[in-house]
């Protein structure tokens, strides 16, 4: 009788490390097997952005924050690419599972809502960091771009990948087909990344637009990465860190609740 009573008991301690590790490994292998799309393509896209802006605007634009326009632009391009790829990794994983009908393979194992969030986020963060390293190496090689504050850069890139991974989980849960996730990407993620100081300093904006930018967490990611690379920023890095952490906790809590309850995942 004791054996029957124990059948439904959780036998993994507080954290199912084996299951969490397996989910994280699956999410990482998902993008590694198609590395030409997930790692090489973002490098080409970032290179095209830098090339186009350098050729079109660079020679005519003066210094921004005491550095050349291309040097100012490089951190924004890096962070924008990182967060877009982190979002794509988690959102596409969940939507593909829904479309193929195998989302049950993720929901049935003895994984808690928190473990599911961490497992999915692991894939997005690792992909974001790998994309960031590749682009940073290319910028250092081609532009001679240095890093003023390496620790700050690492912190903001990691938090940026984590935040957009969490947002990607939420978007994947809400979406039932690729058209819906594409709409979220095109109308929310891309505008937030483009209109967050990636290509300009918010000091050049009208007061209303500058104030609007400062309530956007993605602005602090771009600004924090810029501080890490060139040592200059529009906002204090500690303020940016606080805003990003608050946004990450809020998004992660929402994802935890939805995954724990099976919201829009269970039939």
Short descriptors:
267 residues, mainly alpha, 11 helices, 0% strand
Descriptive report:
This protein has 267 residues and is an all-alpha fold. The protein has eleven helices and no strands. The two termini are 33 Å apart.
Query: What structural class do the secondary elements suggest?
Result: mainly alpha
Ends: how far apart? 33 Å
Q: How would you sum up the global shape?
A: elongated
Number of strands: 0
List the helices and strands and how they pair.
Elements: H1 2-6, H2 17-32, H3 35-56, H4 69-100, H5 104-107, H6 113-143, H7 150-174, H8 178-194, H9 207-213, H10 217-230, H11 237-261
Helix pairs in contact: 2-6, 3-4, 3-6, 4-6, 4-7, 4-8, 4-10, 6-7, 6-11, 7-10, 7-11, 10-11
